[in-house]
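Is this the right way to post structure tokens for a design question? Let me know if I should format differently. Anyway, here goes:
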């Protein structure tokens, strides 16, 4: 991998030294944007002091793409790319309240959504291959593109669609600005926020540099009520057999550091760009939990085992220290010559996740209190090197032929170890609990020697070799594209936690993935888009490692399957769009996906480690499903009724799906049945001010797997802002978010065995509620 990194750097520097330079942003998900088609360079004053209202862009590409510039989000001061995406159609989250990390396009698991940065795939630490969007500060974003269908130009890992985050480049900004302010949380904590961006001409090209330091904080409170021993055949659990109550504080406290830069040169025939971004997260997650034997009240430790007096059952302290960083370095070279236009792209990305987590617990519901401690150390290092080469030939003035290849080498190393401690206590700890500051951490001793967690120490190497070809045309009111992509993948796995005979495995698979899109202009203001494509989702990393995880699913074991193949889907999108005035647009889109080779858990026939009634389960390609829905979006001013300085926006998506598992029919796991967002912005030019509000709500989500079922619901989210512009270079903005104190409520049905889940014989029924208070921001931007 070091050799590949040097190849990338040498190629970029050599191209720069020769003056073979390019100025366009890396290929966007909407289309390949060259320098002549990028945004007009704006002064820093124009970006800082917005004279107008941002609207959804009217994309002219054949593919169904929604484009949102930074101006669309900026006034609500999103902290991250995830926060920004809360305002676009069909994106849901199952994150903790006031957090937006794993984007669920069309409500599907984050692993079904392809996330690109400047058109390039990026690795993440998550086992489902997803990339958390809270890693990218919103201040670095130029625009967000939602690609609803696939194209042969891009890798086909986009069953739900593609989100492309385009970072700022030198051809957007002339000058610079600084951003500074703070965030106030409901517990009184204040976190700073600072950023700076500069763009300008340097030598024969243009440079852009951006930096951001963001304090991150999320103080949450959780309450769980648990019930036991339900009667059999009780589909709707009667919550009348109370077992215990857990009260928890959960605080995420940290700082994100980010940097991005690019250097671009644009000539008549040769363009070059080299760009990079870097994001580091330093975070501590602290949880403190108390379990009581009553539904209300706060009491000290139980006096003895089995006591019916109110009392504390257990005290748990959990701290996770997280240090993550990810970076990408890429270059792009475009050359026009007699036989057409050739484009070469090189990229290197790395994501490193290091975590040090301790958990200490003391249980008082025993004759003699019991103490335990556990240490989990995690290191996941995921690196990708990629090369893309394509060539475009003009067949005639209205038709182009494009063909190319793509190479990607992924190397993912996981090292997860655990250690324990169980020092003996005596019964006097009950009466002397105060002297330990009511914290089990004070009882900790040295941990035993660390051991590898099952499936936690492995190396996965995934090599991809793709070829593609497409034809695209533009004839009067019709734009179209049709192509095919062939993807060849070779996977090699070595797991140090299984027997040597099974430790190494390899799998190869090939897929042919056609796609086509057309856009037809009915009038100057009306057009329809029709797209179809075959897409895929590659298996989760934790499913393809051959390790056996005991008691992973209730009392059942989970055995990995190195022979898993990707899920695939045939999909179609049909949309209609109408332009409103000069800036507005309203659209409606229907979509359908027919999914094959779904990964489901199958009974291997072997008895589980917990004995009779338990089994060993293994993920296998054995299911089919379908996903469908309707998406509506609107972005416009109200000039038609004489209110040109009032902008409105809104989107509404109805989402549905169907899949059959061992227990019956359900949606795809954790898919919300709807999501909508509405809001307005009122500009006041005469006083240099503006204000606005945004309201968001998503529907309930239900997920079912062996051993557990969960229903998740969220409260609504209300955000408002007030802005004052001072002269031509200063803007001050106050923003309030989560003003409705949104809650996340979860209902858990837990079972020990498959038979128990079928007969509805519960092991535990749990009602969990999580709540966070409002957040207030005060931000200022000054252009220079």
């Amino acid at each position: 991998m070091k050799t590949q990194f040097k190849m990338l750097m040498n190629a970029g520097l050599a191209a720069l030294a020769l003056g073979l330079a390019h100025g366009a942003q890396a290929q966007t998900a909407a289309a390949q944007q060259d320098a002549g088609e990028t945004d007009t360079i704006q002064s820093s004053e124009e970006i800082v002091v917005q004279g107008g209202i941002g609207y959804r862009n009217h994309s002219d590409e054949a593919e169904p793409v929604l484009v949102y510039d930074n101006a669309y989000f900026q006034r609500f001061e999103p902290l991250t790319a995830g926060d920004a995406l809360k305002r676009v159609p069909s994106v849901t989250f199952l994150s903790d309240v006031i957090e937006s990390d794993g984007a669920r396009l069309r409500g599907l698991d984050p692993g079904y959504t392809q996330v690109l940065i400047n058109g390039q795939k990026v690795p993440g630490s998550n086992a489902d291959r997803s990339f958390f969007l809270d890693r990218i500060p919103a201040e670095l974003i130029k625009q967000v593109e939602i690609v609803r269908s696939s194209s042969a130009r891009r890798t086909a890992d986009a069953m739900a669609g593609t989100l492309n985050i385009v970072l700022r480049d030198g051809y957007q900004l002339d000058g610079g600005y600084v951003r500074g302010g703070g965030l106030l949380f409901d517990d009184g904590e204040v976190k700073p926020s600072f950023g700076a961006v500069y763009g300008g001409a340097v030598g024969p090209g243009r440079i852009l540099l951006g930096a951001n330091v963001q304090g991150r904080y999320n103080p949450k409170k959780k309450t769980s009520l648990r019930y036991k021993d339900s009667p059999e055949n009780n589909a709707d659990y009667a919550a009348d057999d109370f077992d215990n109550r857990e009260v928890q504080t959960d605080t995420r406290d940290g700082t994100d550091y980010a940097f991005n830069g690019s250097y671009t040169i644009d000539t008549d025939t040769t363009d070059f760009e080299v760009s990079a971004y870097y994001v580091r997260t330093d975070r501590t997650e602290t949880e403190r939990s108390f379990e009581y034997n009553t539904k209300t009240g706060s009491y000290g430790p139980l006096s003895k085992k089995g006591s019916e007096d109110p009392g504390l059952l257990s005290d748990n302290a959990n701290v996770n220290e997280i240090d993550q960083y990810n970076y990408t370095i890429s270059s792009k070279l475009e050359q026009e010559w007699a036989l057409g236009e050739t484009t070469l792209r090189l990229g290197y990305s790395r994501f490193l996740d290091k975590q040090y987590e301790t958990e200490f617990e003391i249980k008082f519901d025993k004759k003699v209190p019991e103490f335990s401690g556990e240490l989990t150390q995690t290191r996941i290092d995921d690196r990708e090197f990629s090369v893309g080469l394509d060539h475009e030939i003009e067949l005639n003035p209205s038709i182009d032929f494009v063909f190319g290849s793509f190479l990607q080498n992924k190397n993912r190393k996981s090292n997860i170890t655990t250690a324990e401690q169980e020092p003996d206590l005596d019964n006097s700890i009950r009466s002397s609990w105060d002297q330990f500051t009511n914290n089990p951490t004070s009882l900790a001793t040295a941990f035993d020697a660390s051991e590898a967690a099952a499936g936690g120490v492995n190396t996965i190497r995934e090599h991809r070799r793709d070829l593609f070809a497409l034809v695209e045309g533009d004839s009067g009111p019709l734009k179209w594209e049709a192509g095919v992509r062939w993807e060849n993948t070779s996977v090699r796995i070595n797991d140090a936690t299984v027997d040597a005979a099974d430790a190494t495995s390899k799998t190869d698979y090939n897929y042919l993935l056609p796609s086509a899109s057309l856009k037809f202009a009915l009038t100057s203001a009306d057009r329809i888009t029709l797209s179809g494509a075959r897409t895929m989702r590659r298996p989760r990393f934790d499913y393809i490692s051959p390790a056996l995880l005991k008691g992973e699913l209730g009392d059942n074991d989970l055995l990995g399957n190195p022979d898993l193949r990707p899920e695939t889907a045939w999909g179609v999108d049909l949309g209609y769009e109408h332009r409103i005035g000069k800036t507005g647009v309203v659209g409606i889109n229907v979509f359908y996906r027919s999914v094959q080779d779904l990964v489901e858990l199958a009974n291997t026939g072997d008895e589980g480690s917990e004995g009779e009634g338990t089994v060993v389960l293994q993920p296998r390609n054995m299911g089919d499903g379908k996903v469908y829905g309707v998406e509506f979006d609107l972005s416009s001013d109200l000039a038609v009724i004489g209110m040109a300085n009032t902008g409105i926006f809104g989107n509404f998506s109805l989402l549905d799906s169907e899949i059959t598992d061992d227990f019956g029919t359900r949606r795809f796991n954790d898919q919300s049945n709807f999501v909508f967002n509405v809001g307005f912005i009122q500009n006041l030019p005469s006083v240099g001010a503006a204000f606005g509000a945004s309201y968001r709500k998503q529907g309930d989500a239900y997920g079912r797997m062996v051993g557990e079922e969960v229903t998740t619901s969220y409260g609504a989210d209300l955000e408002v802002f007030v802005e004052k512009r001072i002269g031509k270079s200063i803007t001050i903005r106050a923003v309030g978010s989560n003003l409705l104190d949104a809650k996340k409520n979860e209902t858990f049905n837990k079972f020990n065995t498959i038979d128990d889940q079928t007969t509805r014989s519960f092991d535990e029924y749990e009602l969990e509620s999580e709540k966070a208070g409002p957040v207030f921001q005060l931000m200022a931007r000054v252009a220079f």
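Format looks fine. Someone answered above. Worth noting: The domain at 2-783 is CATH 2.40.170.20 (Maltoporin; Chain A). Helices lie at 2-17, 44-48, 70-73, 81-85, 500-503, 541-544, 754-759.
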